[in-house]
Amino acid sequence: MSRRSTSWRLAPALLIVLLLSACGSSNLTPAPTGATTGPQRPAGPTAGRELGTAVFEVDVESGQVEVTPLEGDATNRAVFNGSAVTFEASKLTQQTGQTESLSLSVRMTNRFGAPIGRDYLRVLVGEIRVSGPLTASLQNEVTSDPLSMSGLRGLTFVPGGAYLVTRFSTNRLYLVENGQASVFAGQGSAGFEDGNAVTARFNRPNDVIYHAAQDAFYVTDTGNHLIRRVSRDGTVTTIAGTRAQGAADGPGDQATFSAPQFINVDLDGSLVVTTGDGAIRRVRLTAGDPTQAASYLVSTVATGLKSPMGIAVGPDRTVYVAERAANRVRAIFTNGENVVIAGTGSAGTTQGYGNVAQLSGPVGLGWARDSLIVANSTGHDIRHIFLREGDTPWLASNWFVDQIAGASTPGFRDGVGLNALFNTPWGLRARDDGTIIVSDVQNSAIRRLGVPPVIQPTTPSSSGPHIVSVINATGAYGGMSEALPYFDYALPAGGLAPGATTDALEWQFAAATSVGRFRFVVTVEAQPNGNISPEGGHQTGAPRLRVQTVIRNSSQGPTDALSERDGAGQTATINQDTRGLAVDPDGVVYLASPRTVRRYDPRTNTITTIAGNPLEAGRAEGDGPTARFSELSGIAAPRPGVVYVADWPNYVIYVLLNTTGDPTNASDWQVTQILGTGQWGNAGDQNPTGFGAPQDIASTSDRTIWIVDSNSHVLLAACSSEDIADPLRWTVVKVAGGQHAEDRDLTDNPPRFNLPRAIAIGPDRAAYVADTENHRIRRVTADGTTTIFSGRPATVGLAPGYVDGEASSARYTYPSGIASDPAGNLFVVTDDRIRRVSPTGTATTLFSTQMRTSNFVRGIAVAPGGDVWFADQTGLRRISRIIATGSP
C-alpha cells in the first residue's frame, strides 16, 4: 500500500520461477564525443544471459525436439532446476500450407522430492527464436577472385567496380580489376617514405578505405603507427602520427598511434580507427590541405577494448567494433555509452539472439542494408547481425545473429551460402547495395557475396507477419505488443506430488515455411505451499528474483474512458494513476484506481472493475456500478469478499462487501461509507469518526482498520459488532501523533510523525508506518508505544539517504509505500527502490530501477505466498523469489 505526493521513480514484478542468470559488465572506458546525434543508450548492463527452466530446440524438418534444462550458477539458482522438474515432449507433427501448423505434446514430472504448485502449474513461453540455418532461398551465392597472393588483409571498393586490397607480406596496395591484381602503391620493402606510387613505403599496411568526399584512400600503416592518405594516382602522404608508438591526441603531426588496425569513414567525413592498444581514435580534417598532417585533429573515442579490429558506422553514427580476442561485437553510441550487441565472450558457432550467440575471432565488419556483416576469422564463416524491428539497440537480446556463408570449417569452395567454404576470412567491406567483399587470407582470394533479406524473429504475439507463434495458449501476460503466452497444467488437490507426472498438453505453433529450426525458453511458475518472499541484496538489487509485467498501463489519461480496460491480462490495461494495492488471503489482487476499485485474479489472469466509474467523480454508496469515489488513496482486503478503500478528498472510508454473489460482477458488490463525515476532522475531538485526509489504510481483520492521515496521525478504527457495514458500530481513536495537525516531528514520547504516507500491519499485530518526511520506518502498537523500527536515531538528524544495513544505520529517502509478509518482512518503497526490511529492522535492496522519475511506484502489496505486487507507470507488476535448489 502506498501513496505519493511528489514525482519520484521506480519499476517491476513476478511468481515463483524456476531460473535466472546474471548480466555481464564492461570495462570499456568512453571518451567525450561531442554533440549527440544518435541513440542515447541508458547506463546499465551490456548483455544478459537466458533465464528460465528449460530450452526447447525444435527441428522442423526432422520433427526432433531437444529439451535442455537451465541449471543456473553459484549466485543465481532456481527453485526447481532442470533436475527437479523435467519435460517430456513428443516428436513434432506438422501440416504444411502457406504456413506450417506444428504441434508438440508436452508433460512435466516432479523430481523435486516435495509437492509443487497447488491447483495448477503455469509454463510461460519466452521469445521464439529462429535459430537454425536459413533455407537455401534465403542465402546468397559466394564467388571468388583467386589472386594467389599471400598476406591479404584489408580491402575497399573503388569507383567503377574495382577494389583495392592491402598486402602485409609485400607492404603494398593492389588494385584488383576483373580478377587481376596490379600494384597500386608501395615500393615493396618495409619502411617509411611519402611520395609517389613507386617510391612510397609502408610497414605492414593493414586496412584501407575509400573516402568518397575526398576521392582518396586512407590506410592504417600498422608497423609505422601512422595513418596514410593515398590519392587516386597512388601518391602517399602521412596525415596522422609521428611514427612513435603512443596514444596522444592533438593535431595530426603531433598525435601518436599504437599499431592502427582497421579504418572507416563516419557520416561527417571523419575517420574512425581501431588500434592495437584497445582504443578507438577519430581523425578529423579541420581545415587546409587534406594531404598535410597539420590539417587534421586526432581524438580518442574509447579505450579498454579487447583486440578491436573491424569498425563500421551506422546511419545514426553509432560506431560498431569487432573485438577479436573477446569474440563479440560492441556498439558505441554518440554519447560515449557502449553495449555488447553480439557474442557471449566465448568462441563458438551458436546462432540466435545477441546475448546467446557466439562468435569466433570476429575481424572484418561492415554495415549494409540496416545490418552488420562480420568476418568470423577463426569460425571460417560470415555472420549477419541485425536489430529486431522496433526494438532499442542497446540490449543484446534485441539483436539477432545468423550465419549467411561458410560452414564453420576451413576450406575453399564457392557455392550458395552455407555450402561455401572459407579459410580465415579477414578484411570485409559492405556496400549500401548489399554487395560484400571479403579477403580470405589462407585461400589467398577475394570472396564476393550479398546481404540476405532480413528475416525478423518475433515475439509470439507481436503484430505483423509471424515467423513462429503460439496459437493455442491458455493466456498471456503483458500488453499486446509484447505479450508472452503460457500454458496451464491442471493439478490434483495438494499439487503435483513427488515423482508424479502431469497429463500431456498440446502446444501448437504456426510457422513460416522458410523456418528450419526454432528455439524458446520456458519458465515454470507455481504457487508455493508456504511464504517465499523475495530476498534483498546489500546496496544493490537482489540476484535471486524475477520481475514480470502482468498488465500494462493505459496510455490514456487517468479520467479517459479507455484508461481502464477489463478482461484478459494481455489486452487489459490499468489506470496510470493507480494509487494502492491489496492482496486478499486467496491471492486475489485489488487495485485502488482514482475512481474505481478493480479485482485481478492471477489464476484466471483476468481483471474486472467491481465498483466506481473512471469518468465520474463523486461520493455515493450502492452496488458496484452505482458507487462513486473522488480519489482513492488506500486499499485493504482482510478476507475474501471484504475490501476497504480510503477516499482522501471526501475524508471517508468505504467497505465493499460480496458475501454470496460472483466476485467478478460489480452488481454483486455493495459499497457503504463506514468512517468519516465528508469533512476534515481530528480524531479524538468532538468527532468520533472524523480524521484528516486518509493517506493509506491497512487491515488484517475485518473489524479493525489502521489509518494514517494528513494530520500526521496514526489512527485505529474498530467495529463493535460483526455488522461491519453499519457505520454506527465504528469508532476511531488516535493512537499516535501530535495534538494538532501542525505538530510534526520525530519523537517517540510523545509520538509524532511528519506526513506519513503508508501503513502496514505485521504478524505481531503492530502497525509499521512509512514516516515519509522523517525518512524512517516507525513501529506503533495499539497502546500507542512508538519506536524507530528501521532508520537512524533521531539524534543524528533527519537527512534522507540510501544505506543498507542494521536498523540503527539504515537510511531511507522519502519512504512512501509499505507492505508486510507473513514472516514479518517489510517491503518499503523509496525514491527509486524497493527495500526489504527484516523482522529485526535490517534493510536490504530488493529492486533498484534508477529509471526516469515518472516511473515511481504507486502501490505495493504482498501475496500470501510471498510474491510482491506493485503498480507503477509500466503497469501491474510482480516480483518473485528464486531460491537455491533444494529449498522447500
What tags apply to this protein structure?
888 residues; mainly beta; Immunoglobulin-like; Neuraminidase; 7-stranded antiparallel sheet; 6-stranded antiparallel sheet; 41% strand; elongated; disordered C terminus
3D structure, described in words:
It is a single chain. The chain is mainly β. It contains no helices and 69 strands. Strands 2, 3, 7, 8, 37, 38 and 40 form a 7-stranded antiparallel beta sheet that branches. Strands 1, 18, 19, 20, 21 and 22 form a 6-stranded antiparallel beta sheet that branches. A hairpin with a 5-residue loop joins strand 67 and strand 68. It is elongated, with a radius of gyration of 33 Å. It starts with 28 loop residues before the first strand and ends in a 7-residue tail after the last strand.
Topology overview:
Layout: E1 29-30, E2 54-59, E3 65-69, E4 85-89, E5 93-95, E6 99-110, E7 120-125, E8 129-130, E9 141-146, E10 152-157, E11 163-167, E12 172-177, E13 180-185, E14 205-211, E15 216-221, E16 226-231, E17 236-240, E18 250-251, E19 260-265, E20 271-275, E21 280-285, E22 296-303, E23 308-313, E24 319-323, E25 328-332, E26 338-342, E27 352-353, E28 362-368, E29 371-376, E30 381-387, E31 399-405, E32 415-416, E33 425-430, E34 435-440, E35 445-450, E36 468-470, E37 475-477, E38 484-490, E39 505-512, E40 517-526, E41 545-553, E42 567-568, E43 573-574, E44 580-583, E45 589-592, E46 596-601, E47 606-612, E48 622-623, E49 632-639, E50 642-647, E51 652-657, E52 670-675, E53 694-698, E54 704-709, E55 714-719, E56 730-736, E57 747-748, E58 751-752, E59 758-761, E60 767-771, E61 776-780, E62 786-790, E63 817-820, E64 826-829, E65 833-837, E66 843-848, E67 859-862, E68 868-871, E69 875-881
Parallel strand pairs: 41-43
Antiparallel strand pairs: 1-22, 2-3, 2-40, 4-6, 5-6, 6-39, 7-38, 7-40, 8-40, 9-32, 9-35, 10-11, 11-12, 12-13, 14-15, 15-16, 16-17, 18-22, 19-20, 20-21, 21-22, 23-24, 24-25, 25-26, 27-31, 28-29, 29-30, 30-31, 33-34, 34-35, 36-39, 37-38, 41-69, 42-47, 44-45, 45-46, 46-47, 48-52, 49-50, 50-51, ...
